[in-house]
Amino acid sequence: MTKTTVQLATAPANALTMFRKEFCTILFLAAVSVVAPAAAQDRYGSIVFSQEPNGGYAWGMAWSYDSHSSARSEAMQGCRRRGGTSCGEVGWFRNACGSLALGDRNGYGAGWGDSRATAANQAMAGCQRYNSNCRSEITRCAN
């Protein structure tokens, strides 16, 4: 019986360790260089309205803000600048359009949608539900 000896080629331990480090570094660099496309940042809008006791009204609107609270705060300030004493948010929207329609007897309707037309139609329908002589006051998009 003949005895066969097989000799495996091996690298010194420190060479293998260096290879592993280099390999891991290459993998890491490859992973961080594959950057996913940045997600679009959400944009917010807010509609604020105040029905005044004397039959008047005031409103404020803000659009394209980084947060709902920032948009609401700006819209509230706009309402107060127009003389509103009981300003309150009547609608808000994210990555969409918002609209305000005004009617007789300080009535209103607010709406939102993926287009200016959809938002305006919603606001007008809301206004006409309880008021007469409704008209579109403002429509803006946050996206």
Describe the protein's topology.
Blueprint: H1 13-33, E1 44-51, E2 57-65, H2 68-81, E3 88-94, E4 97-102, E5 108-113, H3 116-130, E6 135-141
Antiparallel strand pairs: 1-2, 1-3, 4-5, 4-6
Give the structure's gist in a few sentences.
This protein has 143 residues and is of the alpha+beta class. 35% of the residues lie in helices and 30% in strands. The protein contains 3 helices and 6 strands.
How would you describe this protein?
The chain is 35% helix and 30% strand. Residues 1-38 have low confidence and may be disordered. The termini are far apart. It has helices at 13-33, 68-81, 116-130; strands at 44-51, 57-65, 88-94, 97-102, 108-113, 135-141. The protein has 143 residues and is of the alpha+beta class. A hairpin with a 5-residue loop joins strand 4 and strand 5 (108-113). The strands form two sheets. A three-stranded antiparallel beta sheet has the order 2-1-3. Strands 5-4-6 form a three-stranded antiparallel beta sheet, covered by helices on one side. The protein has three helices and six strands. The protein has a domain at 44-141.
> Span between N and C termini?
83 Å
| Total number of helices | 3
Low-pLDDT segments, ≥5 res = 1-38
Percent strand = 25-35%
Name the strands of the widest sheet in spatial order. 2-1-3
N to C succession of SSEs? HEEHEEEHE
Kindly provide the radius of gyration, computed on alpha-carbon positions and rounded to a whole number of angstroms: 31 Å
- Overall structural class, as computed from helix and strand content, comes to alpha+beta
Question: What is the approximate shape?
Answer: flat
Number of strands: 6
Overall pLDDT: 81
The biggest beta sheet reads:
3 strands, antiparallel
What level of helicity do the residues show? 25-40%
